[in-house]
Amino acid sequence: MTSSRQQIRQYIRQARNALTSDAQYQASIDLINQVNSLEDTPCAQNIALYLATDGELDTQPLIEALWHCGKHVYLPVIHPFSKGHLLFLAYTPDSELCYNRYGIIEPRLKKDAIIPVADLDIIFTPLVAFDQNGQRLGMGGGYYDRTLAPFQNSVNAPKAIGLAHDCQKVDSLPSESWDIPLEKIVTPSRLWQWES
């Protein structure tokens, strides 16, 4: 099962990296419209996103649109002491950024910029692939699964919504016991939604 997950990761990563810069740009603009049409967006104030890497959907135009609407945006930072966990830090145009151990850009760690996960309204999660049941396949580190696990079945939990290119959808994903399916996944062309 692990090898098939790895094969899916490899195939989808190649597919999204093969997108032209024009296609990537158009996808990032279409994403803004899709996110703005979500019922969760208007009342959300604290929104977690991420900076794209490895062919992921470019989130910077969406981040700038959210700033323009007066929303507070937060980015994930690898927790320095709690292995496999994430912190979320405020992200503004003035934020100092650095590369983490995976070569992903994140805000430089500052204690006063951290927001408790419970105070986030939406956590937009990256993913490598998703299927028609809302299963999400990440990069394999389990960071988002660990972040979201304490909030499963909690009424006041942050809404976890996946972001992906349309080409990242597959028919079916092999899942593990720790995988947390998503209720919603947004692609540039549509919203995928499942019952919780």
From TrEMBL:
Check the record and name the Gene3D superfamilies matching this protein: NagB/RpiA/CoA transferase-like
Top enzyme class: ligase
Per the record, the domain of life is Bacteria
One GO molecular function term of this record is: 5-formyltetrahydrofolate cyclo-ligase activity
Q: Does the record's keyword annotation contain Protease?
A: no
NCBIfam families annotated for this entry?
MTHFS_bact
Please report the name of this protein according to its UniProt entry.
5-formyltetrahydrofolate cyclo-ligase
Tell me which species this is from: Vibrio agarivorans
